[in-house]
Amino acid sequence: EPKRLTAAAESLLCSFDWPGNVRQLVNVCRRLTVTAPGSEIRAGDIPEEMGGNRETSGDADWILGLTSWAERQIANGSDLSEERQPLLDIALPEFERALIRAALASVNGKRQEAAKLLGWGRNTLTRKIRDLGIDT
User: Fold this and answer.
1) Considering the domain 87-132 in this protein, what is its CATH number?
2) Pick the residue with more confidence: 127 or 86?
3) Are 5 and 41 spatial neighbours (Cβ–Cβ below 8 Å)?
4) Which residues have a Cβ under 8 Å from the Cβ of 111 and sit 6 or more positions away?
5) In this model, does residue 49 exceed pLDDT 60?
């Protein structure tokens, strides 16, 4: 049975610089067909070296990681009969924790400056720190 690309995998492949042109793309597709587990090829299945130099910066890696995580969560939760926690309820607090910690670290713990980096007021940042259980 043929394998299909997820939207994230397709987007990743489209973002690569293909110096070998079509021949390189054909070889990558053949390799992915053999190496990717399951019937879908996901973004996480595509090694960066297979696509040559990416045109996008390394900053997009977290988006690909998040996309891959979401695809796994959806695939693992295909049984919709059981009650599951919504994906945003799982991911959003972790995302906010990461941003808050990074902002605080970049300004040596100064909440007013960290709040400004995040586009929040100081009171909002203080509430988020408390609600998310972040040690400062």
Assistant:
1) 1.10.10.60
2) 127
3) yes
4) 104, 122, 125, 126, 129
5) yes
pLDDT at 55 over 50: no
Domain layout of the chain by residue ranges: 4-68, 87-132
DSSP 120: -
Report pLDDT for 57: 44
Q: Which two tokens stand for residue 123?
A: 């009171």
Give the CA dihedral 21, 24, 27, 31, nearest 10 degrees.
Answer: -120
What is the rounded CA–CA span in Å between residue 79 and residue 67?
20
Q: Is the pLDDT of residue 113 over 90?
A: yes
Amino acid code (one letter) for 102: A
DSSP conformation class of 14: H
Q: What is the CATH number of domain 4-68?
A: 1.10.8
Dmax of the chain from CA atoms?
56
- Tell me the percentage of the chain whose pLDDT exceeds 90: 34
